Each structure stands twice: as C-alpha cells, then as structure tokens.
Amino acid sequence: MADTGTNFIHNMIDKDLEEGRYEGLPVCTRFPPEPNGYLHIGHAKAICLNFTTAQKYGGKCNLRYDDTNPVKEDVEYVGSIEGDVRWLGFQWDGLYFASDYFDQMYECAVELIRRGKAYVCEYSAEEIKNTRGTLTEPGKASPWRDRSVEENLRLFEEMKDGKYADGEKVLRAKIDMASPNINMRDPVIYRIAHASHHNTGDKWCIYPMYDYAHPLEDAIEKVTHSICTLEFEDHRPLYDWVLQALDWPMPPRQIEFARLNLTNTVMSKRYLKALVEDGSVEGWDDPRMPTIAGIRRRGYTPEAVRDFCERIGVAKANSTVDVSLLEHCVREDLKTRVESRMVILDPLKVVITNYPEDAAEEVEIENNKENPELGSRKVPFSRELYVEREDFMEIPEKKYFRLFPGNEVRFKGAYFITCNEVVKDEEGNITELRCTYDPETRSGGSFEGRKVKGTIHWVDAGTAVPLTVRVYSYLFTEGEDGRYALNPDSEKLCRALGEASLAEVSPGERFQFFRQGYYIADEKLCTAEEKVFNQIVDLKSSWKK
C-alpha cells in the first residue's frame, strides 16, 4: 500500500523509533472491537488507521476481541467483524481474544493485591458511584480499603470460586481517592458475573473491567502503540498505572485521536442494535444502516471507504464530517469502473406512430462515457417504448428541454423523437404519448443543422425487464433540537423497467442507471426470477472541497 502520509500519530511513532523506546521491537498496533454488535463506518476509520500504520512501518497489526463482558457478546458478531476487516482489504497478523488472557489477568490482579495495590470492596455499584466525589470534591474511601493482603487474597479467591452473588463484592485498584482524575479514584477492576462466556464457557464467574484488561492485553501481545479514540484520553493515566504497578517492561504507549462523526448518521451500536431488534430496519446489513455490513450491501466499495478515511485524516479534536464527502468518494471510485444501463423508475408509455409495427432493431450505446475501454452494447428498439414520467410536461416550464407537445428530443443512442399527442384516461391521467421519429437521425450518423437540447433515456416495451428498485434517503434526519431521529421516508420502492441486458444480472453487480444514479443488485434479494436493486448514491454530488 502507498505511504499514508504523516500525521501526529506517526510523528510520535517516529520519535519513539529514534529514541529506541522499544529496543528493536517491530511497531505493533491492534484493532480491538468488543463483539457486542456489528461494526459501523466509524470503526472503518480505526481499522484503516491501525492497519495502514502497521504497514507504513513494516510492523504488525492484530485483531483482538475485547470480550470481557459475557452478557453482551455473541459469536455472530465475531464472524461479522472478521468479514468487515477482510472486506476493507486488510489481514491481521494475530487473531486474539481478551478472554485468552483471563488466567494471566487473574494472576496480575493477585500480584496487585500482594503489592497492596488492590482490595476487595463490598460496596454496591450505586454506593461506589456515590462515594467517588465530584470534580471539585474528593471521593470517600471505602471502609474496606485497608484490609490486609491475606484477607484480600482469600476473598478474591472466593469470588473466583463462585461463593458470592453478582454485585456482592468487587476488586478495586488502590490508587488515590483525591485524584483530580475521577478514573483514578480506586476504580473497579474485577466484578462478579455468573454468566456463560462465548469463548471460556462457565470457567469464570469473575470478569475483568475494560480499563484494567486493555493495557494488559496490549502488553501481553507486545503492542507498541495502542491507538484509540479521544474518550479514552482521561483513562490513559489508569492504563499507564496498571502496567507501572506491575513493573511491566517496555509498556505500550496509548495515543488518542478524534473519532469519526458524520452528518445524518448515528454511530451508536446500542442505538443501531435497538433498530434491528424492534424491526425498524431489515437487520444489521440493511442498506440504509451505517454499519460496514450495511454500506457493503448498499454497494459502497472498500476502495471508496479507504479513500474517504485517508481524506479526512487524523485529528486531535472532535469534529463532524459531511456525509457527502463519503458519497463523493464512492462516485469517484465507480464512475470509470461500472457500466451504464437504462432504467425507467416511473414508466410512461411512448408509441412511435410512424415506426413500422412489426419492425425492431438494435442501437449501439457506449457502456461508460468516462471509460471507452468498457466498450458498448446493443439495445433493442421498437415502436413501443417507455420513458420516465418526469421527462414529459404537458405545459412546460421555462427552460424545460425534455418531452412536451411539439418538442423534439433525442432518445439516447437512437433517434430524434417528436411528441404529437397526449392520451389520457377517464380521470385525466396521462397514459400514453404518441410520437414520431426521424429515421435520418439515428445516432452515429451525419445530419448537419439538426440539433436538439434534450437527451432522455428509454427502454423497449417488448423486451423490458421488471425490476424492484430501492431508492434511499438518509435513515436519520436532524430535528429542531439538533438530535437525529429515524426518517420514516428513508426508502422508496419503485416498480421499474430496465433494458433487456439486466435480465442476466447477478447479485452484487453494480451499474450506473443512466441519469439516475449508481445501483447494485442486492446480494440477498436479487434472484434469477426477481431483480432487486439498491441505490448506492445518486449522480449529483453536494460535496465541495
């Protein structure tokens, strides 16, 4: 992969390498998701940053599951995470589970007790919260803070052996109840949870807390640079304390960066999971979802996502990126890669009255105007066709150059067509346009002095393929209070008609629907009998540099 350029994280790594901080160890990063849901586009930034940083320095990047909470985790999420990382184009050097280190973490906790740096506390979660103090007032010490080492060792072993109920006792680090950083006021590092774990089964009934487990996981794997998002900045002193309290050699350096925030996008696994569970969306991979599974099914490409992550860069301060930049990257990636097809989303019938009734022909149309190497295709043309209903206006507005009575337009790749008559039903709805064509104006011919201002697309009525096309708006809209809410109009189903070649389309194939946008044949719903397409992005970009 090409050099990812410089950023403040790489500058810090460069300095560590110059100073020999890791005594010849290779630069090692890690992507450490908790398997409690599907990854979203925000995680894509972290994936790209960790893996490309390792590549830049010829180092290693591990995939590690932070599975220290058995109540929320599931093997389904483990499989989805691995698929997402591979789809983005990366391969991990080591695949690990935090739960693989439970024995070592337990021994480290015992060592902290022996050193007088941890104790068993009998406060409830609520009592611990109420005695932590505030930003201006110190916390109140636990009455069990000065228990003897021997008693703490006995109680902690009894916790491990299942003698106590959930919440009855916890193990706390013994640090400083007056610390200005509330995270350092004797945080809980082990809690009791009588729950089966997806990896360790029923072996354990006590589980380490994330802030205690994470530095140990990094240190055990010889991670040199633990890159995480800004919300962990206040937790860094605790990260460092755990390793220093255990005299760990060459401890990893934690570096924080700004997480990705996108307009019109909610990136909370808890909220997204609720949408799945209450049926508001098809599932984690609903094409409207900001999950990696969702944008993959939507038709985004890994190249476009990596390009987007590189463009937004790495910052120290949180900000919000316009989602139109992501869409711009998708268009830029697709515009020379995919072939064009003509699809009518809202069909209006056209009869060319001077075209021979039994005649039919094929016209040649380029597959991609931006990329001549993709060649051309033959498209059936006959007396009866369909056009978009919005490409006709009985009483045209100013500067309307499409079909209206008496006006001439070009039918893409075919002929000049003039609208002569409008047919309506009893209720006044337009059902058909009767037109004429000029046989001397076939595309590719020479007809000097003949020009039209409008070119529209069409499909042949006799060979048209029925399609279900799903056109999307954003899943979330911003309310007056600045919060995002579910958009009830985020999906529009169109019973469309496509040109004949789409009868052979396979799931996952992408096309530009001429004048409509970019679309993908849905990987789940598109079959030999029914063709279902999802809108990837529309044609026009609202993003500006």
Offer a quick outline of the entry.
With 545 residues, the protein is α/β, with parallel strands linked by helices.
Essential attributes:
545 residues, alpha/beta, 24% helix, seven-stranded mixed β-sheet
Question: How would you explain this protein's 3D organization?
Answer:
Helix 7 (210-220) crosses helix 8 (236-245). The strands form eight sheets. A seven-stranded mixed β-sheet has the order 12-27-28-29-23-26-13. Strands 21-18-19-20-14-17-22 form a seven-stranded mixed β-sheet, with no helix packed on it. A hairpin with a 5-residue loop joins strand 24 (476-478) and strand 25. The protein is 24% helix and 25% strand.
Task: Itemize the secondary structure elements and their pairings.
Layout: H1 8-19, E1 28-31, H2 41-56, E2 60-65, H3 75-87, E3 95-97, H4 102-114, E4 118-121, H5 125-130, H6 149-160, E5 170-173, E6 188-192, E7 206-208, H7 210-220, E8 225-229, H8 236-245, E9 253-257, E10 261-262, H9 269-277, H10 292-298, H11 302-312, E11 320-321, H12 323-334, E12 339-341, E13 343-344, E14 347-352, E15 360-366, E16 376-382, E17 384-388, E18 408-411, E19 416-424, E20 430-438, E21 455-456, E22 459-460, E23 465-472, E24 476-478, E25 484-486, E26 491-498, E27 510-513, E28 517-521, E29 531-538
Parallel strand pairs: 1-2, 2-3, 8-9, 10-11, 12-27, 14-20, 18-21, 23-29
Antiparallel strand pairs: 4-5, 5-6, 6-7, 13-26, 14-17, 15-16, 17-22, 18-19, 19-20, 23-26, 24-25, 27-28, 28-29
